[in-house]
Amino acid sequence: MNSPKKDGDDDVPVKDPVKYGELVILGYNGSLPSGDRGRRKSRFALYRRAKANGVKPSAVHILNTPQDSKAVHSRGQHSISFTLSRNQTVVVEYCHDNNTDMFQIGRSTESPIDFVVTDTSGGGKEGEDPSIAPSTISRFACRVVCERNPPYTARIYAAGFDSSKNIFLGEKATKWKNPDGHMDGLTTNGVLVMHPEGFPEDPKQGLWREISVCGDVYALRETRSGPSRGKLAEGESSALRDGSLVDLCGATLLWRTGEGLMRAPTLRHLEALRQELNASRPQCPVGLSTLAFPSLPRSHSLEERQPWVYLACGHVHGRHDWGQRSEGEEEPGEGEGSTARRECPLCRSVGPYVPLWLGCEPAVYVDAGAPTHAFVPCGHVCSEKTARYWAETPLPHGTHAFRPVCPFCSTALSSPGWTRLIFQGPID
Predict the structure, then answer these.
(1) Fewer beta carbons below 10 Å: N end or C end of the chain?
(2) Which residue range or ranges hold the Pellino FHA domain (predicted)?
(3) Is residue 89 within 8 Å of 133, Cβ to Cβ?
(4) Distance from C-alpha of 285 to C-alpha of 13, rounded to nearest angstrom
């Protein structure tokens, strides 16, 4: 998963490497539409590097002229620059840390970025380079620092070091000096984190917080890019837990620990569930044809025996023309069925009529249960426990709103967010 990215790199996994965990972008259902390639993919595995590349704060410099700044930056060390005014900049130098590995995430395709994250909310056109396409995700959005020794704690920090090994907070950026004297700040659109409790056995949502450049935890600003930071969240940590969510303002990432992944269902298990469901030979109660979910991983095109569902009641059918469509309404494709309102021939309920698609991203499942529920209105199918958890998990949307979305396609959910599927068995 962690592919080479530059000559002489030190991030190629050694034999039997320690796996810290994985970051999974919500909304891609297992892979990017154009396929996972290199550092641009839907999930990123973090392994212990062959050689530590972590850094930690060391010297602090207060600079009063641009020449002073050039002298500090020419040393080739990592640094964070806090511009306080036209005549004063505080530069915090970072030195090598043998005990940590650093991984950087962002929209940029430059070499310091380990995981290139694309916007799942519509920023940029298909085929465009995500580093230049319109997007609210920062080019150097955040960094994850993992301890190389047990318990391999992973911590999240806002902002990443650029090609000059610098993080630059300009004069207009939100920044401050803490009581202990060290400088800190926030990125323009912020890095938000939510740590759930008891994930995945008995998951309960935590509070959304904002992470600073130095890894402190704050309450949210009034708006996403507001000028004033929130209140310091005393006693809270930037350490990621199994199931933690990281929002980059345009994409939300799910963190699964190495230990958590060992307990999570696998793609092979999901395929076994699909085969078991198809082996029960569910039928369309109108056409009496046998239905079957497409194989995993699947294409995005509809198949002849694809199951469809009336979301208002959960009755599963094959594709048919029962019920009335409004004039000029097009046939829905995946995730486009919310406008196709039909009357269910079994119970007369009227509502969206959409094709069903199995959720193919194992990391978002909270259990290994049977695929019995579908998200509304997109029609992605998963276990009941998984559907309920994500329907009750609001994700950041816009500057100050939150809403639950389908973890497989990022479609906003309609209350209550899911429906129980009712299959018609074969008539003997």
Answers:
(1) C
(2) 15-272
(3) no
(4) 52
Q: Which of 235, 246, 267, 236 is nearest to 46 (CA)?
A: 246
**Could you report the per-residue pLDDT of 311-324, keeping only the tens digit for each?**
999 999 999 876 65
Q: Write the CB contacts of 313 (distance below 8 Å, at least 6 apart in sequence).
A: 344, 346, 347, 349, 351, 419, 422
Helix (H) / strand (E) containing 247? strand 245-247
Domain boundaries, the chain: 19-263, 267-420
| Two tokens, residue 399 | 């500057």
Q: Name which residue leads in pLDDT, 297 or 234.
A: 234
Q: What is the spatial distance between Cα 248 and Cα 194, in angstroms, rounded to a whole number?
A: 12
Over residues 23-77, the pLDDT tens digits come to 999 999 988 887 788 899 999 999 999 999 999 999 999 888 766 666 666 667 8
Q: What is the pTM of this model?
A: 0.89
Collapsing DSSP to helix, strand or coil, 386 comes out as helix
| Cβ-contact 404, 115 below 8 angstroms | no
Which positions ≥6 away from 167 have C-beta within 8 Å?
A: 79, 80, 81, 140, 159, 160, 161, 213
- Residues in contact with 393: Cβ distance below 8 Å, sequence separation at least 6, in sequence order: 194, 205, 245, 404
- Residues 399-421: what's their mean pLDDT? 94
What are phi and psi for residue 67, nearest 5 degrees?
Answer: -65, -40
Return the higher-pLDDT residue of 24 and 126: 24
Measured distance CA(47)–CA(120) in Å, rounded: 25
C-alpha R_g of the chain:
24
